[in-house]
Structures are given as structure tokens and as C-alpha cells.
Design brief:
Length: 732
């Protein structure tokens, strides 16, 4: 091994400092108002995790709470396990040094904590290989009021040549519970976010994606762990985490049973999927892993969700406090078959509904190859002159005259073979050499790693905004995953393709956000293929699924709510499903309300009800968007569903209730409210009703004590299949 002179001096200094054996263990406590993860530097300079759970009053107590965490002669509960050395299980990091050595050891060097704001404390723990100038920093950002901890890792080195990173996890979490029950979220197109609970057995279970893009389509990078199946919304210990990353991910759960050599422990190892992604790290280059965000609660899954929602609104999504716009989308009314007059006439339909914004979907672009179907035009982002002779600017002006904002659909990462872009730039296509061209939805992926392609994608948005500065909303779609993956720009250096694509996409979004910080953007990926917090740093909201059947949506929105707040979940009323318009609107109102319907097919009574519902949503939007969520009756265990939102003052609340596939012999669910002030009195009024239609709730308008609503509850008053009800609660 050859090491530069500067690196030798630095290494000598570090070794000199660390040559004095740590005589007394140091404790490093990462805490929020109610949660703590605690590490200890042992006498061998190893950083061990010694605690995870409720925050305690005295830091010194953490060492004595669970002695099973501490093992002076082992790296069993290490803070960041290394491969190729003495740790023999699944590592957090595995490298090949410049000299070919495949082993890695990491010793404690130092740590620092600093207050970034009154709410945020960041702690950085520096580690180094005792024989190589190879450095790892473990970062922990603790959000006090939200009880959220955000952790990630920075890797660098001063070796003479490249060091190959074969694994590079974002975190390494140790949990010591007798059993570990994992709840994870899986699915496919139109069936995203199915929820499953399993008892983890000895061995490794993983949630992972190799899709390249749309990576959250089959598995969402989020999970909950509990020591018991008895955990409820309000009781029981829960550890919950989510990986903020839009590329290939892998969250591993390794369960080690108790024997002479190993403890009874669960290792949680979240990070970028190492599949086809060895990363050659240059000297002095810094590699930063995705952020892993986690929380702990001893008060059930409901508190976990509220922690994530509070954090997401203020820190996890773009402009979380920016008011969301209700909208009408033209897709189901026109599909690709429209012209300028058609769209302008639909503006009147939007005003009849009372929504804020009109969204023009696919089909507005392409001239040589008009976008009249999904087989042509993708990539040619010029306005179709035949369909829209006045351009997008004319549509924005007409919408503004009707009191509407205007939004538009794009899919800038993709291209149809039948397009000018395809003809002009074959070197921009992600197509593997010597493999047949594989089209999905008749399209291919562009090589975003190429800086020229990045400029092109940025210009798609920039040119639209220059042509029509009044555009208020963009729906960014992504309708295929990555296969036969090959970047012409990278040439023979393909190992980091998946990582560099994601980095390039983030880079484009950074440029867009720097120039257009107030632009609303919805993230769509052929449904919920990009629902995760890595992308949500740049988007206000997402489209969770192309499945808009109301009963399916009840379950999907329920599962999504474990990590993502209501204001991010676009929920549109469509023609899908046999349920009434009221039912569909009551379901959609529990998320971010929108419409994708043919308004002209509504009769006068339905149109009046739709306008009333939109008005109610606008009036109660702050409660639904920013209130605390309480899930009351689960659609996963019953044929019913109910949830409620309560504002921060506990003066207002909105309760949603749905009958699904209800049968005569069903037992009506227990219906106790939550999150209210038991000392206050509340008027309970059923809403989303026409003026002359009597409420279903027989006591609508009456006053109940918060104590009675929470501990006695209400009787379930809906007796028919596919009926719904929305109640407004107001303290008096």
C-alpha cells in the first residue's frame, strides 16, 4: 500500500491521538423530547449502541437500563458494523481499499453536537480505520418537538487511489426485543401500499427495489417494528423508519438468536441497494448516503404517524405550509382528444365545482409527431399548434379570467421512439448494447446522467414557465422503470449507474426549486412509484395510485397515512366505482381533494353537493391538512373505516366514517373518538349534505362532552353498504 505524505501525516496524528486507550467509557446520547438512542465508546474505542427507547431523565441511567446491549469483547451492538474484519454478520459497510485489502475497522475519533435551531440538534460521530486514512462520519439530526431522528453517513478517504464501496448503509440500528413483528408495505400497479405484518424469524428479511426509477412501486421504503402483535393505535412499543431515497434501496432486517457467541438481537440496515452499484470513491471525494428517518413510541402506531406528519410538514416536504389547491383534471373528460375550445370550456366546469385550479393532463404537445396517443410525441415538449394555437399562455390567461389557477402535466425523463428527440439524440437513450430495445408503455428512459440531458429536462420546466409565467402547478409523471440499464455517457464505467441517475434527478430538481420555489408540483409515477421522502424534498404532494375505486382508496390512504400526512396524498373523485358521488367525495376529502370527472354528466343535485363539499373542504382544510390524525376503525380488520383530524387547539375536528362491503350479520364497530379535550364540549354536525337532505347522524347539531365522545363514543349509525358520513366537531 502506498499512502501520500499528507495522508501519512494525518494518519500519524490520528493514531497518536487514539493511542491513549480510553480509560472510561463515554456516553453519546441522541435525544428528542421523548425518544433516545444512546451510544457508548468502550475501552477498545468501539462505538456501541447501548439504548433505544423513551428518553430518560439522567444520561448516566442509560448504561444500566439494558445490560444485554453492552458486550465489551464484541462488536455485536456496534453503531456501524464493518465487513471483512471481526464482525461476521451482515455489515453496514464493506470496502476494498486502494491496495486490495477487503477488511475494514472503524475506531472512535471524536464527536460533536450543535444546536441548528431551538428544535434541531445535530450530533456527528467521527470514525476512522486505525490502519488506513479511511473516514466515516455518522450524522444524527434530532427534531425535539417532533420526536424524529434523521441519520445518514458520510464516507471519505485519503488513500492513494480509489477505494471501492461495495456496501454503504445509511444506518445500523440494534433492537433487543424478545420478538420482532414487522409491518411493511408492498404492492404493484393499482395496488400500492398493501400492508402486511410478519414475525421476523432468524435470518435476513429485506425490503428492496432494483427498479432504477419508480422504485417504490413494489415496496415502500417504510416499516414499523413492534415486540408484540398486541400493539394498537394507542398502546404498545413501536419503532418506525423510512428511507428518503428515490433510487434502488435495500432495508435489511437480520435477526440473530441467542447463543454463546451472539445475542438475541435485530439489526436494521437501511440504505442504497448494493445491487450492481459498487462505487469507486476518489481520494478526498465525499460520499453521502441517503437519510434514514426514524421514531420510537411507547404509545402505539398513532403516535408514530403523528410524529412523522409533524416532521414532514415542516422539514420533509417542499413548502409544507403552502396552501394546497383543489383541482379539476381533464384526463377522464377528454383523454388525448381535445382542442383549445374544449379545454377553455372545461374551465367553466371547474368554476361550477368551486375548485382552485385546472390541470391540463397528457396530450398537449408534439407537432411532427402529435401526442394523440401514448405511442408518439413524448420528448417533444413544444405546444401542439393544431390543438392549442394560442399556446399555453392563452390557456393560463383564460383560466385566470375565470378565477382559476392553471397546471400542466409533463413526463420529461421519458421518450417515445416516435419523436423528434429520439431521432435527433439516439445517444441520449438508456439502451443496453447488443440487447433488443424493450419498450414499456411504448417509451424509453433518457440518460439523465448526461449533463446535456439534465439541461434538456430542466429546460422542459423552464421553457414552460417562460412561455406562461402564470403556471401554478406541474404534475411530474414517470411511467416506466429501468431495465437493460446502460448509460452511454458513462461508457465503460457503469457500476454507479443507478446511483448517478438518482443524483442527476435530484440535481435537476434542485435547479428547478432554486428558480421556482413557489411552484406547486405533484409527484406521479404511474401511480405511487415514487412515494418516499427523498423525492418529497422537492414536491408538495404525490399521486398514490391510479386506482381510484373508493373502497380500494380507503385502504390505500389508510396505509399511506402511517408515514405521509393528508396534505401530500392527492385523492381525486373519478368515475371509478359504483358508489355514489357523495361517497367518492367523502373518501377524497380525507386527503387532498381533487376531481377527474365529466362535470356535464352531473345532475343539478350532484353538482350542488359537489360544490358544497368543496366549500366544506376549503373551510376545514387547515384541520385536515395540519391537524393530528387519529385512526379509529381499521379497514384492514373490519368492513368499516373511520379516522379523524384534530386541530392543535383541540377546538375543531373532522371525522370520516365509511361502510365498505358491509353485510347484515356484521357487528357494528366500537366508535370512540380520540385527540379531543375531555373537558371541552363539542357540537357535532354532519356535513357534505344538501340543504334539504336530512342527516344520517340522528343527533346532528347536538352537543357532547369530549369525555363522552372519547370514552363512551357514538353508536355506528350507518346501516347500509357503501354509505359514508363526515362529521364536523366544534368546541363551544
Amino acid at each position: 500500500m502506498h499512502i501520500s505524505a499528507a495522508a501519512k501525516q494525518y494518519l500519524f496524528l490520528i493514531l497518536a491521538i487514539s493511542s491513549f486507550k480510553i480509560s472510561q467509557a463515554q456516553t453519546i446520547a441522541i435525544t428528542t423530547n421523548h425518544t433516545a438512542i444512546v451510544f457508548e465508546v468502550d475501552t477498545n474505542k468501539q462505538v456501541q449502541q447501548i439504548y433505544l427507547g423513551p428518553r430518560l431523565s439522567n444520561t448516566s441511567v442509560y448504561r444500566d437500563v439494558n445490560p444485554d446491549y453492552r458486550n465489551e469483547n464484541s462488536t455485536l451492538n456496534t453503531a456501524y458494523a464493518t465487513g471483512g474484519s471481526t464482525y461476521l454478520n451482515e455489515p453496514a459497510i464493506e470496502v476494498m481499499h486502494a491496495d486490495g485489502n477487503m477488511s475494514l475497522a472503524l475506531n472512535y475519533v471524536s464527536h460533536q453536537s450543535k444546536n441548528l435551531s431551538p428544535d434541531i440538534v445535530q450530533t456527528d460521530i467521527q470514525l476512522q480505520d486505525p490502519a488506513y486514512p479511511f473516514f466515516v462520519t455518522l450524522h444524527y439530526k434530532s427534531f425535539q418537538a417532533e420526536d424524529i431522528i434523521d441519520t445518514w453517513t458520510t464516507i471519505s478517504h485519503g488513500e492513494e487511489d480509489k477505494v471501492v464501496l461495495n456496501r454503504y448503509a445509511s444506518a445500523f440500528i440494534n433492537i433487543l426485543w424478545p420478538e420482532n413483528h414487522l409491518t411493511y408495505f408492498y404492492g404493484e400497479y393499482e395496488k400500492e401500499m398493501e400492508m402486511k405484518q410478519s414475525l421476523l424469524q432468524p435470518g435476513i428479511f429485506s425490503i428492496q427495489s432494483k427498479l432504477g426509477v419508480r422504485t417504490a412501486c413494489n415496496y415502500n421504503p417504510s416499516f414499523l417494528i413492534s415486540p408484540s402483535t398486541g400493539v394498537t393505535e394507542n398502546t404498545g412499543e413501536v419503532f418506525a423508519g423510512t428511507l428518503a431515497y428515490s433510487g434502488n434501496f435495500n432495508i435489511q432486517f437480520e435477526t440473530l438468536k441467542l447463543n454463546i457467541d451472539m445475542g438475541n438481537t435485530l439489526k436494521i440496515i437501511p440504505g442504497i441497494n448494493a445491487y450492481a452499484s459498487s462505487y469507486a470513491l476518489k481520494p478526498k471525494e465525499k460520499f453521502e448516503t441517503p437519510h434514514f428517518i426514524f421514531t420510537y413510541s411507547s404509545s402505539g402506531t398513532g403516535q408514530v404517524s403523528r410524529n412523522f406528519h409533524r416532521w414532514a410538514i415542516d422539514y420533509g416536504i417542499w413548502n409544507g405550509r403552502q396552501k394546497r389547491s383543489t383541482l379539476l383534471n381533464n384526463w377522464e373528460a377528454t383523454y388525448f382528444a381535445f382542442n383549445q375550445d374544449t379545454i377553455v370550456n372545461l374551465f367553466d366546469d371547474a368554476t361550477k365545482l368551486g375548485v382552485d385550479l385546472f390541470l391540463l393532463d397528457d396530450g398537449w404537445f408534439g407537432n411532427k409527431y402529435p401526442r394523440d396517443n401514448s405511442r408518439a410525441g413524448l420528448g417533444d415538449w413544444q405546444v401542439n399548434k393544431k390543438k392549442l394555437p394560442g399556446g399555453i399562455g392563452h390557456l393560463v390567461k383564460e383560466a385566470t379570467n375565470k378565477g382559476l389557477q392553471f397546471g400542466i402535466w409533463i413526463e420529461p425523463e421519458m421518450v417515445n421512439p416516435k419523436s423528434e428527440l429520439y431521432e435527433q439524440h439516439p445517444d441520449w437513450l438508456m439502451i443496453a448494447p447488443n440487447r433488443p430495445q424493450h419498450l414499456y408503455r411504448t417509451q424509453l428512459l433518457l440518460d439523465l446522467i448526461n449533463p446535456r440531458v439534465q439541461d434538456y429536462v430542466f429546460d422542459v420546466v423552464d421553457n414552460l414557465m417562460k412561455e406562461a409565467p402564470g403556471i401554478a402547478y406541474i404534475k411530474w409523471d414517470c411511467n416506466r422503470s429501468m431495465d437493460n440499464a446502460y448509460s452511454p455517457y458513462l461508457k465503460k464505467d457503469q457500476n454507479s449507474l443507478y446511483i448517478r441517475y438518482t443524483q442527476a434527478w435530484y440535481s435537476i430538481l434542485e435547479r428547478i426549486r432554486n428558480k421556482y420555489p413557489d411552484l406547486d408540483m405533484m409527484l406521479c409515477a404511474s401511480g405511487g412509484g415514487r412515494v418516499e421522502f427523498g423525492a418529497m424534498k422537492y414536491f408538495q404532494e404525490f399521486w398514490p395510485s391510479d386506482n381510484t375505486y373508493p373502497v380500494d382508496r380507503i385502504r390505500l390512504q389508510w396505509a399511506t397515512s402511517y408515514f405521509y400526512p393528508a396534505l401530500t396524498v392527492c385523492a381525486h373523485v373519478t368515475a371509478a366505482g359504483r358508489e355514489s358521488l357523495k361517497y367518492k367525495m367523502d373518501v377524497a376529502m380525507a386527503g387532498k381533494l381533487g376531481f377527474d370527472i365529466v362535470v356535464k354528466k352531473l345532475n343539478d343535485q350532484e353538482l350542488a353537493l359537489a360544490h358544497t363539499t368543496v366549500d366544506n373542504y376549503h373551510r376545514l382544510q387547515n384541520v385536515i391538512n395540519y391537524g393530528s390524525l387519529y385512526r379509529l376503525v381499521s379497514p384492514y380488520t373490519t368492513n368499516f373505516s373511520s379516522l379523524m383530524y384534530v386541530d392543535s387547539t383541540k377546538n375543531k375536528a373532522v371525522v370520516f366514517a365509511y361502510n365498505m362491503e358491509t353485510m347484515q350479520q356484521d357487528t357494528w364497530p366500537e366508535w370512540k373518538f380520540n385527540g379531543l379535550d375531555p373537558k371541552k364540549n363539542y357540537r357535532v354536525t354532519e356535513i357534505n349534505l344538501l340543504k334539504d337532505v336530512p342527516p344520517q347522524f340522528p343527533e346532528s347539531g347536538k352537543i357532547f362532552s369530549g369525555e363522552a365522545l372519547m370514552y363512551q363514543g357514538l353508536k355506528w349509525y350507518m346501516k347500509k353498504i357503501e354509505t359514508s358520513s363526515v362529521l364536523e366537531l366544534e368546541a363551544i
